[in-house]
Amino acid sequence: MKQLLLLTLVLLLVPACALTGSSRSQTSAQDFVYVTNQNNGTVTVIDAKTLEVAATVDLTTLGFDENSKPHHVAVEPDGSFWYVTLITGGKVLKFNADNELVGQADFEVAGLLALDASSSNLFVGRSMAAVNPPQRIGMIDRSTMEIEELDVFIPRPHAIAVSKDGRKVYAGSLAENRFTTVDLDSGDLTFTDVDAGGGHHHMFVDFTMSPDGKTLITGGQMSGKFMFFDATASEALPMEKMIDVNDQPWHPVFTADGRYAYFANKTANSLTEVDMETREVSRVIEGEGFNQPHGAALSPDEKYVFVSNNNLDNSRPSATDPNAFPGTVTVVDRESFSVVKVIEVGPYASGIATRHSN
Predict the structure, then answer these.
(1) Contact (CB, 8 A) for 131 and 124
(2) Vertex 296, ends 342 and 167: CA angle to 5°?
(3) Which among 27, 33, 231, 246 has the fewest CB atoms less than 10 Å away?
(4) How far is 273 from 230, CA to CA, in rounded Å?
(5) Which CATH superfamily is domain 32-353 in?
(6) DSSP-derived 3-state class of residue 344
(7) Which of 113, 95, 169 shows the shortest CA–CA distance to 358?
């Protein structure tokens, strides 16, 4: 009886977050979409179910410059923390689920993020805006926000992804048709050269690893090609297929079962769905609702695809002010593959993520 009473007392005294292993204060019913607004130093937080803006995180109130250029986002699988890169601010910031700043790491011209769910590692590449950045990527310990830089020996390392087991990280060049595989156990580097055909330059924007860890996908901004690589290869990754898609395929995201991949086509003002079984384009939606689409993210329940839009060409005025041209988030219903809502956010909406899409 004494042991039972003691156990009951311990359970009463231990915080709930310690029992669950998560600091998330929101209920599991609350899922959010995080969107960086690159031209005013804010991040918009959207409720993924109600499709309404839940909060705006103003980085200037935290001591960061309005021109710090928040660019990309990654979210913990349980939603407990989220991370954002600052290009000119040279930082990677860590926020908890209450949107409180809890950590940061220094990294010159920080660009894209790739979160490894199997470890505490968070990888960061260099911004596309950097003309001649260091040929290194960053590896951050998310628990401490300590950072180590890894040589990749390719110019302008931008696209970035991590293997399913967390033991390899991939970095793609904006300047060459080449990417680097870093073996984190041995430190060895392997280079994959990609034949573009006809002298094309791909310009890899982003990599995404399939949920089963077998296929690495990427789009070529300059070539308008979409590529599939065998990620099970021990050294250089063989290209399994390359298909034509709409212009400037950007950040792809997978469904949880790996059956479909989605990505925006920036200059084509479209969203593309690829069937991963056939490795062909299955559906495309374009036109109304898309204004320089940038990134894509799936809602955790996979009902919606959220697409961020730069709107830097001022092609879509605000619904409330014809003289204002904010960034937007287009909400696409996956079943009907139609636009169900356009949400106005801050200027130059760029990076977008949910706890589903990392």
Answers:
(1) no
(2) 160
(3) 27
(4) 20
(5) YVTN repeat-like/Quinoprotein amine dehydrogenase (2.130.10.10)
(6) strand
(7) 113
> In this structure, what are the phi and psi dihedrals at residue 136, rounded to the nearest 5 degrees?
-140, 150
- The CB density around residue 137, as the number of other CB atoms within 10 Å, is 27
In degrees rounded to 5, what are phi and psi of residue 35?
A: -130, 125
Burial class (CB in 10 A: 0-12, 13-18, 19+), 132: exposed
| C-alpha span between 202 and 226 (Å, rounded) | 9
Q: What do you get for the CA distance between the two ends of the chain, in Å?
A: 48
The residue extents of the domains of the chain are 32-353
User: What is the structure's pLDDT at 234?
Assistant: 86
- Across 27-38, average pLDDT: 84
Quote the CA–CA distance of 210 and 258 in Å, as a whole number.
Answer: 6
Please name every residue paired with 147 in a beta bridge, in sequence order, or none if there are none: 140
Mean pLDDT across 259-263: 98
Based on C-alpha coordinates, what's the Rg of the chain?
20
Q: Which residues, 6 or more positions from 268, have their beta carbon under 8 angstroms from its beta carbon?
A: 246, 247, 248, 286
User: In the structure, how many helices (H) and strands (E) does the chain have?
Assistant: 2, 28
Q: Strand, coil or helix: what is 78?
A: coil
